[in-house]
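Homework help board

Subject: predicted structure for assignment chain

Our instructor gave us this sequence and asked us to write out the predicted structure in token form, then describe one feature. I got the tokens but I'm not sure how to describe them. Can anyone check?
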Amino acid sequence: MYSEEIQVRTGDHETVRDITDECARFVRGAGSPDGLLHVFVPHATAGVAIIETGAGSDDDLLTQLRELLPADDRWAHRHGSPGHGRDHVLPALVAPSMSVPVLDGRLALGTWQSVCLVDTNGDNPTRKVRLSLLAG
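My token output:
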């Protein structure tokens, strides 16, 4: 197994950040042609998703998360910025980990698929992402 932690800047507002290029660079550096890339976010308020980006799907995802998880005072978890409790519920809807097949040294994603970090917590502008390649 080959593993590395990367830092991803998400800023001070909710975002869907495409990390496909970072994942592809990691896989190329791992030196194994086949395997399984595991992507894990070691945070209680972020997740990872495979979605299309750039055509509005990333914005649509954030819109739906705002509807499902409003940033208001309904949440029992109350530290941080107003509505921060919703950020702690996010990983139940957008999982903190995923796996992607690696074939011939490349991510086996579909044409429009991207690996994305989903972060609704503006209190933490930088996130860690653990990339691990399980060689086949």
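Reply (TA_rk): Your tokens look well-formed. For the description, you could write something like this. The chain has a mean pLDDT of 94. That's the kind of observation they're looking for.
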